[in-house]
Amino acid sequence: MYRTAITSGAAALLLVVSACGSGADSEDTPSVTETSRVSTTEGGESETSSTQAPSSSSSVPSSTPSSSTTASESETSGGDAAAPATQVVNVWVDDSWKVEEVDEDVCGGSAYQSQFSTQDDVYTCGATASSALACLDDEGGDTATCIANGQDRIAIHFPHEPIDPSEVTEREAEAIPLYVELADGTMCGVLAHDQAQHWDGMFSWYGCSDASELLTEEHIADTFDDAEESWTVQRSTGKGKPVETPVAKAVFAGK
Question: What value does the mean pLDDT of the chain take?
C-alpha cells in the first residue's frame, strides 16, 4: 500500500485501514500430468515421457501480497515440490552400436526371459561370461543379437537355432533396468559381479560413472523404489551412508 503523508491525522487513518484490511490467499493451482509416447531417440532408445500442463482454474488475483505473506508461501511451496516422473526407456541395438561377432551359439539350447526387459520375447542365455544380457532372434531365424553392455553400446551377434517360446523359462522377479541416469546426470550401469564391501553390509549391483554405487539390502531387484512415478535409489559415495536419490531415466532392453 502506498501512503501519502498529508497530515498526521490522515496518516493515522491510513494505518488503521491497512491493519483492518484483509485479502484471500491464493490457493496453489494443481497441475495435470500428461503422458505421451515419444518416437525412437538417438542410440535406439524409445521412451515414455511425462510433461506438466496447467489445469483450468479460476483466475488468480493480480494484487501484490505483503512481503511476509510472499515469503511464507514461497517456503511452503518449495518444501512440497515433487521430483519429476522417471522416464522409462527401451533401447535396442542399431548402427551406432559396436557389434562383436561370436563363432558359436552361446545359448546352448536353453534360455530364460531377460530380467533387463519388460518384453516376454527378450531372453538371456549362456554363461555369465558370455554377457548375453538381453537377446532377440534376428529375422530369418538362424542368428541372434544380444546386448552385452547397454551403457557402452556393445552387443554380440552369433549363429543361433531358435528356441521354442514354451521352452523359455519365465523371469522370476520384476524387470530391472540395464542402466539408469540419476537426477544430476550421473550414469549407473549393472555389474556382473559384486565382491566389494559396502555400507553396513549392503550389496551393490549398479556402479556409477562418478564411482558412487547404488545399494540394496540383498537382492538386485530391490535396488529401485518404483512405487511412485519418480523412482529413487539408495546411493553411496566413498563407501559412505547411502542417500535417497531420484532417478531421471531408467533404460530397459527392448524395441
Answer: 76
Under a CB-based contact definition with an 8 Å cutoff, are residues 125 and 132 in contact? yes
Q: Report if residue 74 sits inside a domain.
A: no
Whether the predicted pLDDT of 226 surpasses 80: yes
From 167, 199, 222, the end of a domain falls on: 167
pLDDT for the residue numbered 4: 39
Spatial distance between the Cα atoms of 207 and 87, rounded to a whole number of angstroms: 20
- Give the least confident one: 126-135, 149-158, 166-175: 126-135
Can you give the pLDDT at residue 43? 54
Q: Could you list the residue range(s) of the whole structural domain that residue 188 is in?
A: 179-253
Domain count, the chain: 2
Q: Is 93 helix (H, G, I), strand (E, B) or coil?
A: coil
pLDDT digits over 159-190, tens only? 999 888 888 999 988 999 999 999 999 999 99
Give a yes or no: residue 31 inside a domain.
no
In the chain, the N- to C-terminal Cα span, in Å, equals 61
Pick the last residue of a domain from 124, 140, 167.
167
Quick one: cell of 125?
Answer: 542365455
Question: Does one domain contain both 153 and 207?
Answer: no
> How far is 169 from 107, CA to CA, in rounded Å?
13
Q: Which of 41-65 are b and which e, b meaning 16 or more Cβ less than 10 Å from the residue's Cβ?
A: eeebbebebeeeeeeeeeeeeeeee
